[in-house]
UniProtKB/TrEMBL annotation:
<dbReference type="InterPro" id="IPR002347">
    <property type="entry name" value="SDR_fam"/>
</dbReference>
<protein>
    <recommendedName>
        <fullName>C-factor</fullName>
    </recommendedName>
</protein>
<dbReference type="InterPro" id="IPR036291">
    <property type="entry name" value="NAD(P)-bd_dom_sf"/>
</dbReference>
<dbReference type="GO" id="GO:0016491">
    <property type="term" value="F:oxidoreductase activity"/>
</dbReference>
<dbReference type="Pfam" id="PF00106">
    <property type="entry name" value="adh_short"/>
</dbReference>
<keyword id="KW-0521">NADP</keyword>
<dbReference type="InterPro" id="IPR051468">
    <property type="entry name" value="Fungal_SecMetab_SDRs"/>
</dbReference>
<dbReference type="GO" id="GO:0005737">
    <property type="term" value="C:cytoplasm"/>
</dbReference>
<keyword id="KW-0560">Oxidoreductase</keyword>
<comment type="similarity">
    <text>Belongs to the short-chain dehydrogenases/reductases (SDR) family.</text>
</comment>
């Protein structure tokens, strides 16, 4: 396990890639002291609750990322849990997909995907800047890193305009392309504060979103993402990578 952030906040931690992030971070030889795992329905998050029941580092918070009015409370709850220290790593992982063809695209799916995949991550990042800043200021390591202060937004290659050869997926492509654009701005605006921001593509992964025919399992995906995260520094802030460490064009 190549990254050692002391404090982590993640969205959509109850299943799929988010849950695997929690497992692998906890399995590290130097696991986080505080891992705030948020999800929409903690009462139904069986595996996550089991992990938190045996590991005092894990704090489960109820958070629907489209409940924008709840963000200040999520940040203050996180601040209380962190108890005086900053946040090293924010992972905006929660996401949804619609696959309607052009004739089936609806206003509702365009808006819902924009809310979850694009608008929520920027509002969450904005609200967590003070805690990320606190972590960056407390660190004596000069270069940016995921151990120091970082925003990792889980995007998709489908959000790459340069890579679009298949058409379709209007709502998903637009929401992830928007997330990519936002992440670039975060990287520029937060560079002076030593806070890193990147977008990572997890691969085509066997989750309920990726389906059973996907190319890799969540273990391979998250191992790859963590390896890539370990290579991130100031020069790589504001860039777009896949889980194998290949850079993706915007
Ligand atoms: P899953 O469908 O397995 O999990 C999605 C997660 O997002 C769930 O935890 C879900 O919670 C959560 N979520 C959805 N809506 C909300 C919301 N409004 N508030 C809070 N949480 C929410 O998908 P993956 O694990 O595969 O996807 C994780 C990320 O990876 C997403 O951003 C996705 O776009 C991206 N990705 C995945 C790929 C793949 O092949 N799987 C490919 C490229 C990108 P709940 O259980 O409550 O619904």
């Amino acid at each position: 396990m190549p990254i050692y952030p002391s404090t982590v906040f993640i969205t959509g931690a109850n299943r799929g890639i988010g849950l695997e992030f929690v497992k692998q971070l906890l399995g590290s030889k130097n696991p986080p002291n505080k891992l705030i795992a948020s999800c929409r329905k903690p009462a139904e998050a069986k595996e996550l609750n089991e992990l938190s029941s045996v590991n005092p580092a894990v704090h489960v918070l109820q958070f629907d990322v489209t409940d924008f009015d709840a963000i200040p409370k999520i940040v203050s709850d996180t601040e209380r849990i962190l108890d005086g220290v900053g946040l090293n790593l924010l992972i905006n992982n929660a996401g949804i997909i619609h696959r309607s063809p052009l004739g089936g695209v609806t206003l509702d799916e365009m808006r819902t995907e924009a809310d979850i995949n694009c608008i929520a991550p920027v509002l969450i990042a904005q609200a967590f800047v003070p805690l990320l800043r606190k972590a960056a200021e407390a660190s004596d390591v000069p270069n940016m890193s995921c151990d120091k202060a970082a925003i990792v937004n889980i995007t998709s290659k489908v959000g790459s305009i340069a890579d679009n050869r298949g058409g379709g997926r209007y709502a998903y492509r637009a929401s992830k392309a928007g997330l990519n654009a936002i992440t670039k701005s975060l990287s520029i605006d937060l560079a002076k504060e030593n806070i890193l921001a990147v977008v990572l593509h997890p691969g085509w992964v066997q989750t309920s979103m990726g389906g059973p025919d996907a190319l890799i399992d969540t273990v391979t995906c998250v191992q790859g993402l963590l390896n890539v995260m370990a290579t991130l520094d100031a020069q790589k802030s504001g860039t777009f990578w896949d889980y194998k460490g290949e850079q993706i064009p915007w």
